Amino acid sequence: MVERKARIALAEDDVLLRAGLASLLERSGFEIVAQAGDGEELIAAVREHRPDVAIVDIRMPPAYETEGLDAAQVIRQEFPEIGILLLSAHVEVDQATELLAAGQRVGYLLKSRVTEVREFIETVERIAQGGSVVDPGLVQELLTARHKDDPLEGLTEREREVLTLMAEGRSNAGIANRLWITEGTVEKHVRSILARMQLPETEDDHRRVLAVITFLDNR
After folding, report:
1. Segments of 12-59 assigned E as strands
2. Beta carbons within 10 angstroms of residue 166's beta carbon
3. Is the pTM of this model over 0.85?
């Protein structure tokens, strides 16, 4: 049985970048079912084609503010089964927090990360398969932020490293390989992170990502 290609709707107002992303995704085995240059066009395309994943630039015409994010929120409300990958040229935490907190089939990636082709493709694949991914650059900014009631203040350096890799969507085995520790040690760190951040212990991937997102409300 031939595995079905993940179907992608791509929204990016920069025509050259959009064409480049579409070509890259097609060469990597995805099917591009729609391309859009603004939020309204994207919503219409998603309603027509029902893709597996919508890749959306946060800032699009006409005002280049949160049009892409607004469209993504409409898509999530109407089609919660569709994965959403937000792209941004800058770290824009506050605008994307609500959508990221939904947990499943959602990701946030800085456009600079797209040049790292393998990681970009892996991110799209993870979201298509129901996972969640937060850009490592965003995670690092959050980890180094200093706030009065920072929920991460009590984490050890190793726990912060584990949390960063969790947010990238890596499994316990993947974290263990990256940090040269055992899976059992990773599991202990994850339990400790969830406990320190007052998140319930669970096997669901989206709860792991919420460990990163939780403290955004305290910014």
Report:
1. 31-36, 53-57
2. 26
3. no
pLDDT beyond 50 at 113? yes
List pLDDT tens digits, range 127-154: 999 888 888 777 666 555 545 456 666 7
Task: Please name the residue that has the structure tokens 């998603």.
Answer: 46
For residue 54, list its beta bridge partners: 9, 84
- Residue 217's nearest CA partner among 150, 156, 158, 171 is 150
* Residue 50 C-beta-side C-alpha neighbours within 13 Å: 4
For the stretch 83-92, pLDDT in tens is: 999 998 876 6
Q: What is the β-pairing status of strands 83-88 and 31-36?
A: unpaired
Alpha carbons within 13 A on the beta-carbon side of 180: 0
Q: Is the distance from CB of 139 to CB of 212 less than 8 angstroms?
A: yes
Q: For residue 149, what is the enclosing H or E element?
A: none
Do strands 53-57 and 83-88 pair parallel, antiparallel, or not at all (unpaired)?
A: parallel
Instruction: Tell me how far apart the alpha carbons of residues 116 and 137 are, in angstroms, rounded to a whole number.
Output: 13
Q: Which amino acid is at 206?
A: H
